[in-house]
TrEMBL record, chain A:
Subcellular locations according to the entry: Cell membrane
GO molecular function: transmembrane transporter activity
Protein name: Glutamate transport system permease protein
Pfam families from the UniProt entry: BPD_transp_1
Keywords of this entry: Cell membrane, Membrane, Transmembrane, Transmembrane helix, Transport
The keyword Ion transport is annotated on this UniProt entry: no
Species classification: Bacteria, Bacillati, Actinomycetota, Actinomycetes, Propionibacteriales
Organism expressing this protein natively: Nocardioides terrae
Membrane topology of the entry: Multi-pass membrane protein
UniProtKB/TrEMBL annotation, chain B:
Protein's UniProt name: Glutamate transport system permease protein
Listed GO MF terms: transmembrane transporter activity
InterPro entries xref list: AA_ABC_transptr_permease_3TM, ArtM/GltK/GlnP/TcyL/YhdX-like, MetI-like, MetI-like_sf
GO cellular component: ATP-binding cassette (ABC) transporter complex
Chief location of this protein within or outside the cell: membrane
Gene Ontology biological-process entries: amino acid transport
Automatic annotation (TrEMBL), chain C:
UniProt entry keywords in alphabetical sequence: Signal, Transport
Database matches in PANTHER family: ABC TRANSPORTER GLUTAMINE-BINDING PROTEIN GLNH, AMINO ACID ABC TRANSPORTER PERMEASE
Residues of the Solute-binding protein family 3/N-terminal domain: 59-280
Annotated protein name in UniProt: Glutamate transport system substrate-binding protein
Cellular component aspect of the GO annotation: extracellular region; outer membrane-bounded periplasmic space
Family as reported in the entry's similarity comment: Belongs to the bacterial solute-binding protein 3 family.
């Protein structure tokens, strides 16, 4: 960060001061870590028996297969379905006909404004509850599809609008019809810009699958809960769960960054307004996305 | 449906709790996020590393797992035992949201023209003066739209508190649907409208701020 | 920088997998007392009855709780749930000539017990399922095979001594349970969590003032922590656990009642209790007298 515009390249006195700060900061961070470890050790939280489940083949298998794999499955199916949902409603929002545009707009707005957990509870009691184990699985997938689909609908719309106007004009000029312009000219190009956004939506979906715990759906958090109910190792389980989520999400982020570089170049990622009421359609630099 | 309307005080109290969690977490996470972003762009390497690690770890952890840390794991080692539930909820939501606030602010800082910071340096301002008087005030303005989205997401995220003993709106909705599953649609509409009102209010407020402050530049 | 991070992750993963071979947690499980499975059971039931059909098919689908230690709990690596309810299920299945490992266990939560029976997703529900008039309108409930009542579990030094003391106190129970609704009606601040064991932890570490549910479960936890916890206040409700069955098969009621009666008489019921709820030191109670089946 020597090139930062926020501060001058430090002179000898400042460098000395920064070094002093750094030492203090290192000592503080190290002291914090040491204190934490000592504290946990004193509380017996580092004892082997509490970590043992995560080194036992049976539990590792359950954690990875019944937990992580199911979570990935749910996240993946919901993102695939959400892309379909998003494409339909995103294009619907661009329609020339008000009777198509408005319902699409309302549906998208509704699912964006409502918490995913609320949707999940509704779908669970409305449908999932009477459909056994698969009912819970699909409850989570359905709720995540509706929410992420609504977000992606916005992304699709923004992606299509972000294309140069000449593209559709040229397409119309050679006699393509509206649907053809959309499906063979605009969407293929828009998808390219949207891919990174779709993948970062995967991170969101993956994190949100954890909410399935509230409707007894399968997945990583649920397996974690079973483990800490059995062994009373809440802290250890929470650490393992967090580590697994972080690793998978970082891998996804790497893929998204790579795709961004390959397909879009170094320009800003696509971003969308927060609600229809005040959709400025401006590109605001999508750092806040993916929450 | 009748059940919901004849117990409407329960619904209102639940949304009041949602608003409380959201408002408190909003303030706390804005403060925390600002501290994080200052560390992250500052000249001290260790703090930069620390902030970056914190943001990367927490951002990629599901909020539900953050709640497990605060509500289930921490009390077991003697932390947050006598902390009121509301406060624990605020802590969990804020720890999580502050990382997104940090990212939103960083994007705002990137939007501040380089000349501004350079001019500040030219007249001899230090890093903290530069940040406090020149960069951050403008960065906050540029960050209003992404911060607005973050605050909206945070408000919706307060629903996770329902899983951990806080009877806020989503917890109350489950209470109703649990007893009257055949009325699920009606109950959903009542609670969804509540959330939509809150979300649109935040959205309008942030749009208003954005317009007012944009004119000031 | 990024490459080193990936390498580090890969190394850590490999290390974890390598180490994975040495852990040996949770391998000391036992599957409860043996239940004698009757031979040639199908012949003893009248043609066209649901029991005959089940005995012929050789399998039965029973809905139980998976998250309540003592009552019905299934650990992450277990094949079969354990607890008093599954034991009752095994007794019933045995009378149909169905081996315990042929039973299909389905997880039910409080909210889906009636829908499961109404839609025929399970044959029986044995899931701390209190008999109420409302429920008997829509499903069949035979029993009670166990009677308990709602009480409070508090710290030894707690000043809660009567149910009126809970006003304004924080009381934990399982989300969606009637216990939680009832304690809210008594003026307490309800704290709904996912499982009873989470509530016990909250009481132990002082986060909440009390937890509430059926006394049987609470006694078990109190016996686990005799120096820290006690059961306070007399039962302020009566919960009579019944076996749920589909309303389309009224003939099942008499079979359930007869089978459980027999188990009560020959000691299987007591054995089931001792190996589950009784493990923590609760005395085995007198088996309850069961309701007569509705005339069909």
């Amino acid at each position: 960060m020597s090139t930062s515009v926020l501060f001058d390249a430090p002179g000898p006195r400042t460098r000395a001061r920064h070094r002093a700060y750094s030492v203090v900061a290192i000592v503080a961070v190290a002291a914090l870590v040491v204190a934490l470890v000592l504290f946990l050790n004193a509380k017996g939280e580092l004892s082997y028996s509490l970590w043992e489940p995560f080194l036992t083949p049976d539990f590792v298998r359950v954690l990875l297969v019944d937990g992580l794999l199911k979570t990935l499955e749910m996240a993946f199916s919901s993102v695939v379905l959400a892309v379909v949902f998003g494409a339909l409603f995103g294009v619907g929002k661009l329609s020339d006909h008000a009777w198509v545009r408005w319902p699409c707009l309302l549906v998208v707005e509704f699912f964006r404004a409502v918490p995913v957990l609320l949707l999940m509870i509704f779908i669970f009691f409305f449908w999932g509850i009477t459909h056994g184990d698969s009912g819970r699985y699909w409850t989570v997938v359905a709720a995540l599809t509706l929410y992420n689909g609504a977000v992606l609908a916005e992304v699709f719309r923004a992606g299509v609008l972000a294309l140069p106007k000449g593209q559709s004009e040229a397409a119309y000029a050679i006699g393509l019809r509206k649907t053809q312009v959309m499906t063979s000219v605009l969407l293929p190009q828009a998808v390219k810009i949207m891919l990174p956004a779709i993948i970062s939506q995967c991170v969101v979906a993956l994190k949100d699958t954890s909410l399935g715990m509230y409707v007894v759906a399968p997945g990583l958090t649920r397996v974690g809960k079973q483990i800490y109910t059995q062994f009373n190792n809440q802290l250890q389980t929470a650490i393992v769960l967090a580590a697994l989520y972080v690793i998978v999400n970082l891998l996804l982020t790497l893929v998204a960054t790579w795709l961004q570089r390959r397909l879009v170049g170094e320009q800003k990622p696509l971003d969308v307004g927060m609600t229809a009421l005040v959709n400025t359609g401006e590109n605001t630099g999508g750092a806040a996305g993916g929450i | 449906m009748n059940e919901v309307f004849s117990n409407f005080d329960l619904v209102l109290r639940a949304f009041w709790l949602t608003v409380q969690i959201a408002a408190l977490s909003g303030v706390v996470s804005l403060v925390l996020g600002t501290v994080l972003v200052a560390m992250r762009i500052g000249p001290i390497g260790v703090l930069r590393q620390f902030a970056t690690t914190y943001v990367t770890l927490v951002r990629n952890t599901p909020l539900l797992v953050v709640f497990i840390f605060i509500f289930i794991a921490a009390p077991n080692v003697g932390w947050f035992v006598h902390t009121p539930f509301l406060l624990k909820g605020v802590i969990a939501v804020s720890l999580y949201t502050s990382t997104f606030v940090c990212e939103a602010l960083r994007s705002g800082i990137n939007a501040v023209p380089v000349g501004q910071a350079e001019a500040a340096r030219a007249i001899g301002m230090t890093f903290s003066q530069n940040l406090a008087h020149v960069v951050l005030p403008q960065a906050f303005r540029a960050s209003v739209p992404p911060l607005g989205s973050t605050m909206i997401a945070m408000t919706k995220n307060t629903s996770v508190a329902a899983v951990f003993g806080l009877m806020e709106a989503t917890g109350r909705m489950r209470f109703f649907t649990n007893r009257h599953a055949d009325d699920a649609v009606g109950i959903l509409i009542v609670f969804a409208v509540g959330y939509i009102v809150i979300v649109e209010l935040i959205s309008l407020a942030s749009y208003g701020l954005e317009r007012r402050w944009r004119a000031a530049r | 920088m990024r490459m080193t991070r990936i390498k580090a992750t890969a190394v850590a993963t490999l290390l974890a997998l390598g180490l994975a071979a040495c852990g040996n947690a949770g391998s000391d499980d036992d599957s409860g007392p043996d239940v004698k499975v009757s031979d040639n059971a199908a012949a003893s039931f009248p043609d066209g009855s649901r029991m005959k059909a089940l005995a012929d098919s050789g399998t039965i689908n029973i809905g139980v709780k998976f998250d309540q230690p003592g009552i019905g709990f299934k650990g992450a690596t277990d094949d079969m749930p354990q607890g008093f309810d599954p034991e009752i299920g095994k007794i019933l299945a045995a009378s149909l000539g169905i081996e315990p490992d042929k039973i299909k266990w389905t997880e039910t939560i409080s909210a889906n017990r009636e829908p499961f029976l109404q839609k025929g997703q399970v044959d029986l529900v044995i899931a701390s399922y209190s008999i109420t008039d409302e429920r008997r309108q829509v499903v069949g409930q035979a029993g009670p095979y166990y009677v308990t009542g709602q009480q409070l579990l508090v710290k030894k030094d707690s000043d809660i001594s009567s149910i009126d003391d809970v006003k304004g106190k924080e009381v934990c129970s399982v989300t969606g349970s009637t216990s939680l609704d009832q304690i809210e009606a008594k003026g307490a601040t309800p704290r709904g969590f996912d499982t009873y064991s989470e509530c016990v932890d909250q009481v132990l570490n002082g986060t909440v003032d009390a937890m509430t549910t059926d006394g049987a479960i609470l006694l078990g936890y109190a016996a686990e922590h005799p120096d820290d916890l006690k059961v306070a206040v007399d039962p302020f409700s009566e919960e009579r656990y019944g076996v749920g069955y589909g309303k389309d098969h009224p003939e099942m009621c008499q079979w359930i009642v007869d089978t459980i009666k027999k188990a009560q008489d020959d000691g299987d019921w007591a054995k089931a209790f001792e190996s589950t709820l009784g493990k923590s030191g609760v005395e085995t109670p007198e088996p309850p007298t069961m309701d007569a089946c509705p005339a069909s």
